[in-house]
Amino acid sequence: MKRRTPISDIMTKEVITLNHTDDLETAERIFKTKKIRHIPVVSGEKIIGMLSYTDLLRISFADAIDEDEDSVDTVVYNMFTIEQVMAKNLVSVTSTTLIKEVAEILSKREFHALPVVDNDKLVGIVTTTDLINYLIEQF
């Protein structure tokens, strides 16, 4: 197994983001159409939060509807903003952070994705799935 591999080797570089002014309906549509579970929230080029699909499930009955449906009862979504629902106290890493260090952070915390930020600019995202896929490739 490679020991000194930077996270830039396995992170997602073309990151799908939400603007802090977007609504939760937009967020849900992105989660479902792109089949992703974490979306960084930005204000301009600065990352200000992270929204997970689980965050949406906590405030809605979205888990009770058919995953293939494109529409949901949006009454609950209209009661909250993205900024109210997203995680705000982010832990981030740089693109040169070693994969081992990222794995240690994710194994000790209760989240499953980290934004990758260089010079205050979002350059990627790394998830537990990225780490598992990397591990599988090593065998």
TrEMBL record:
Signal peptide: none annotated. Residues 11-67, 86-139 form the CBS domain. The keyword Glycoprotein does not apply. It comes from the Bacteria. It holds the Pfam family CBS. Gene3D superfamilies: CBS-domain. Keywords: CBS domain. This is CBS domain protein. It comes from Xanthomarina spongicola. The lineage of its organism: Bacteria, Pseudomonadati, Bacteroidota, Flavobacteriia, Flavobacteriales.
